[in-house]
Specification:
32 strands; 6 helices; single chain; disordered N terminus; 548 residues; mainly beta; 21-stranded antiparallel beta sheet
Length: 548
Amino acid sequence: MTSYFTLLPGVRAGILLVGLLAAQPAAAQGWLGLAQSNYGGTNNVYLNPSTIADARHRAYLNLGGGGANFYNTYVQLDLPQRPWAQGFQFQREYLSEQLTGDAKFGSASIEARLPSLMLTLGPRSAIALTNRVRAFVQFSNVSENLARLAYQGLGDAEDLGLADRVLTDNGFNIDANSFHEFAFTYARTFTPNTTHFFKGGLTVKYLVGLGGAYLHNAGTGYQVYGSDSIQLRNPNVSYAYAGANDYYQQSGFGLGTLYGGQRLGRGYGADIGVTYEWRPYYERYHYQMDGTTLLDDSRNKYRLRLGLALTDLGAVRYQSERHVRQATLANDRVVQLGQLDTISFTNLNTLTPSIERLVGLREQSSQFTSYLPATLRLTADYRLLNHLYAGLLWTQNLLPTRTVGSRSVSSLALTPRVEFSHLEVAVPVILANNYRKLQVGAMLRLGPVIVGSDNLGGLVGLTSTTGADVYFGVGLALHRPHRKDRDGDLVSNKYDKCPREKGTWASKGCPIPAPALPPAPPALAEPSAPAPPLTEPAAVPAPAPTTP
């Protein structure tokens, strides 16, 4: 299928982008309702890799998940009725401009969280193997005048008061990037269970570039003469793209092309994080069982948890003589573009020759680098009651303004949640869009299923919104155990040979038999009647002496 585009550097790209972002939502990687859960499994790795050490899971298998997010600071959707109401039809008039005088920002992104696995390695370590596909389209620092020309069209320049005048408030960035991320995470605790508990983690990533582009304007002046004519003064524009239509439509295209020697680009990345937990009652989580003292791994032990992480450090480098183009416009002349409707190209491969003919190029190459959305994440989670928590998450973009790449959106979120091993409800309250807009989300985790939104108003169709967000996931969890003891004899069911009778560890849970008594002595016979007393024999008189 052949596509035709009208060429207008700087302005026409803005029209296409604003049209794209205003027409449909895309996805992001916020998941703020789940971000600080103790039962998020592999999903917690993306916030801070240290979280999986001493986690509540022995193993966690993410079967799949994804999310969609879109927001902007220029166009607002105002509906006269709910979109599901009978007879509802969308009209362009429902979109209204937010004219604040500030530079405009917009972002759309998609994320697919593919099968991933987390495993504990003994009592102190854990690993995770994760993979996901991420895509971003963002525009930033677009002046309100340029945004209005892009949205309303050059034909309305006179009505907008923007015709026949040189406009210099024009320094915008448009960035797009899509890549497949394969990652390995290792996390370990640094201390035993004690009042002050520390753990850390590191994620290393291998990235396969699936396509990218950028258009950066560092302040080109322009003057609109009519609906089909514009003049560029001192152009200061650079652009690049990778993955034109002919790459994905080439003969024999397949996974080997995408991930093998003909891939568009590759790169490396890393996340690093540490966590501190204050455990004022740590000794309560020890118990006696099977002849020893054990730590109850099935329970959270902290009153306060603090985390610090640097995420998405790295870049994707695109390089291909055939499928990658990078160029900078010549900036030593005034360029007159008239009859714009007659300027067209059939695909991206004809873009650079057309621009070189119309505007002129200062430099060209077949490679460029797109950086990941480097981000600082600070977290605090306080345990109010046994199952009631309040989490605070500060997300701050670290990528410089003029750097080619995708940017995270700075935000501050307060998330109260009720958390059980198989059920969790969270309601994040978010100062979003670079701290410009207050929005409310919700998340439900019920068994293996996770559903949520970081912008509930946009999702359920409130009549006024500047964006929407949704995410979902399915995962299987094997929880860390607390040894069961049915009969309460401190011998676990696993080792108890007499599970219904109390015993001792020495007797494997069976009662100790009473010691055998020594045999009783033989009984004495009853005495017979007493014999009559013996009488003294009568004295026999001595014979009389005889006379001789």
